[in-house]
Write a structure and sequence with these properties.
This protein has 402 residues and is α+β, with helices and mostly antiparallel strands. 60% of the residues lie in helices and 17% in strands. The protein has an 8-stranded antiparallel beta sheet. α1 packs antiparallel against α2.
């Protein structure tokens, strides 16, 4: 198959996926989560598009000799591994809820399809309680005390229980405080494959910046060969640093939840999840400013600004990737599901994919043209604004506070 055809297949299917994900968040808002899942997220065509993107993308990389760049190839292999893990989870995993009442022993649960299932062991609720911050009515935790196979078990937010491959998470409770609802999941293969993909992705993102003759090293080399006068380079560096610090401060002031944190957010993973994403947003904002400047200056200066913007985009995309997938790990720890197609996480993924296009300038030569590149970066920032503001104000979801 010709490289041109592979480009159309890989990047074309990726573009269609972005459009479908954006449409799905609107459908969910208008018609409910179940409709969005049925018509888009769980539709065979959606799965096929992901498969087409993965296969054609890897084939294109191989045709272009990327096998000689192990970290670049590893990045794409990691993403394919994550997709494979998600598919395995969808096909072989099982999840649902179990409703427990004080003093009643049961092994029956209801899965996500409404079908009843039976655990290979039983659970008995001894006590459910709500804990508060000292001297306040701010809820600090929801705690279920259980007995499983003769031993005491405690389940609370961010503290799960595992037994015989089954995992249990605190999900809800009865108004009379005499009952507790636990999320139940069993995924013997998918989580391991997905986490292997996350680990490979992290290693390759770090190694990418040290890869000889890689995209990052070529961009940095181009900047070093820049013919801009030294004083101009110093002034540009000062302006970029000031703008970056200002945007980062603005994002941080508005990003973290205000007031007492809900129990599920009381985890050290909150900062580790949100900080890299906030930094990435600030860097994307910086590329937008560079894009505006690149459209009004002369051609030679526009080319230098493109190289500066590209050098910023690599760490920005990697930070967004790290923060997004760390959030998926946290979600799996807290809720037993590392990806739920919530509007915020869907738009974060869409933003990541949008900004991946200019990082593939070797395959998409049109985006190497300075003014085309700058226009793309300006328009791409709309996805950041929707992710940060649009979801909160219009689309809602579990993450609408952030």
């Amino acid at each position: 198959m010709q490289s041109k055809t592979l480009k159309w297949l890989s990047f074309g299917s990726l573009a269609v996926l972005i459009v479908l994900m954006a449409a799905a968040t609107v459908i969910e808002r208008l018609h409910g989560t179940e409709v969005a899942l049925t018509r888009i997220y769980h539709h065979p065509v959606f799965f096929a598009l992901w498969g087409l993107t993965a296969v054609s993308g890897l084939w294109l990389l191989w045709r272009r000799g990327t096998s000689r760049k192990p970290f670049t190839l590893g990045l794409h292999l990691a993403l394919v591994l994550i997709l494979a893990g998600a598919l395995i989870t969808h096909l072989t995993g099982r999840s649902g809820e179990i409703h427990l009442r004080n003093g009643v022993e049961t092994a029956r649960f209801t899965d996500d399809d409404g079908q009843e299932g039976t655990l290979p062991f039983s659970l008995e609720l001894k006590e459910f309680r709500i804990e508060y911050d000292p001297g306040t009515r701010n809820v600090s935790d929801y705690v279920s005390e259980l007995v499983c196979e003769g031993r005491p078990v405690t389940i609370s937010m961010n503290h799960i229980f595992k037994n015989q491959g089954w995992r249990f998470y605190q999900a809800d409770y009865d108004e009379d405080l005499q009952g507790s609802i636990l999320a139940v999941s069993r995924d013997p293969w998918g989580v391991g494959v997905t986490y292997a993909g996350y680990a490979l992705l992290l290693v390759c993102m770090i190694g990418f910046f040290f890869e000889k003759d890689g995209a990052w090293s070529r961009t940095v080399s181009a900047l070093r060969r820049s013919r801009a006068p030294r004083k101009h380079r110093g002034a540009l560096g000062t302006v970029l640093a000031a703008a970056g610090i200002a945007m980062l401060a603005a994002w941080m002031l508005g990003a973290f939840p205000k007031g007492p944190l809900m129990p599920v957010l009381r985890s050290p993973l909150l900062f580790l999840h949100m900080f890299p994403i906030i930094v990435s947003y600030a860097l994307f904002g910086l590329t937008t400013l560079l894009g505006v400047a690149g459209l009004v200056v002369k051609k030679e200066a526009s080319e230098r600004l493109r190289d500066v913007s590209l050098s910023v985009l690599y760490p920005a995309v990697f930070l967004l990737t790290f923060g997004t997938f760390l959030g998926a790990v946290w979600a799996n720890i807290s809720w037993g599901n590392y990806w739920a197609w919530d509007p915020k996480e869907t738009w974060a993924l869409a933003t990541l994919l949008v900004y991946s296009f200019p990082l593939h300038g070797d395959a998409l030569p049109a985006l190497c043209k300075p003014r085309v590149f700058h226009v793309f970066c300006i328009l791409a920032f709309l996805s950041v604004l929707i992710t940060y503001f649009g979801v909160n104000m219009l689309l809602g979801g579990m993450h609408s506070y952030a």
